[in-house]
Design brief:
Layout: E1 4-8, H1 12-25, E2 29-34, H2 37-46, E3 51-55, H3 63-69, E4 75-80, H4 86-89, E5 93-99, H5 104-117, H6 123-128, E6 135-140, E7 143-148, E8 152-158, E9 161-166, E10 170-173, H7 177-183, E11 188-192, E12 195-198, E13 204-206, E14 209-212, E15 215-218, H8 221-232
Parallel strand pairs: 1-2, 1-3, 3-4, 4-5
Antiparallel strand pairs: 6-7, 8-9, 8-12, 9-10, 11-12, 13-14, 14-15
């Protein structure tokens, strides 16, 4: 995929490594290399790129502080030697969070996330193409039960069937979770191989988990970016 990016990092060796990885493994265009936040601000005033590689620990302005000054739609891949900023990074349009030293294996995994974020088949676009129906029917014995979408808290996949959970009951649907996912509109988002959640019903998001009331549901790395892309639309 032909994407454009810049690197913002005060460590020359880190910049050189990313430049080599980009050149050897992608078709991306590296438009620039900035060694501090002020240089990056001036560069971005004159140039537009698809996303940025942004180091967190820099002098004068940290990567987090710089991210807060950039347009909200700026897509970011954070790079840092410290893991403790990971949760805070998703307040922005974060595609990935790379821990230094960045290995080839980890960078290749990041390229898949980055290109998926720009793909036409993102979670957001798929959801926008779905009908905005507010109900569906579930077969229960010989009866078709009408279920309002707003009443559903989450779906949980269990081998050959799916458990539909509302505030008052649980129903079994004898279909695979992937089949159910394809028919659901927003605000339903896949967060794990085993879970689809109603984002309207979320009470909080913390430490790679979402909470619906007292129910704690994991958010896996595979689905995190698609989920956060939806959530970012509601972050103020």
């Amino acid at each position: 995929m032909n994407l454009s990016c810049i690197i913002i990092d005060d460590e020359p060796n880190a910049v050189s490594l990313l430049e080599v990885l980009i050149g050897q493994t992608t078709q991306w265009q590296l438009f620039g290399k900035c060694y501090n936040a002020l240089e990056a601000i001036e560069f971005l005033k004159k140039h537009t790129v698809d996303f940025i590689f942004l180091d967190i620990n820099m002098p004068h302005l940290t990567g987090m502080e710089l991210a807060g000054l950039l347009p909200k739609e700026t897509k970011i891949v954070f790079t840092t030697a410290y893991a403790e900023h990971a949760a805070d990074s998703y307040a922005f349009q974060t595609i990935d969070y790379l821990l230094k030293p960045i290995t080839l294996k980890r960078f290749l995994a990041a390229t898949q996330k980055i290109e998926a974020a720009f793909s036409k088949h993102t979670v957001i676009e798929k959801s926008e193409n779905k009908p905005e129906d507010d109900y569906f029917f579930v077969k229960s014995g010989k009866t078709l039960r009408k279920i309002l979408l707003d009443e559903v808290l989450y779906f949980e996949g269990e081998k050959e069937y799916v458990r539909l959970v509302t505030a008052t009951e649980e129903l079994l649907i004898y279909r695979r979770l992937k089949e159910v996912e394809m028919q659901l509109p927003q605000p339903f988002v896949r967060v794990h191989n085993s879970y689809i959640v109603n984002t309207k019903r979320l009470s909080k998001i913390q430490d790679n988990h979402v909470y619906i009331g007292d129910k704690q549901i994991p958010v896996s790395e595979k689905f995190r970016e698609g989920f956060m892309a939806v959530i970012r639309q509601r972050i103020f």
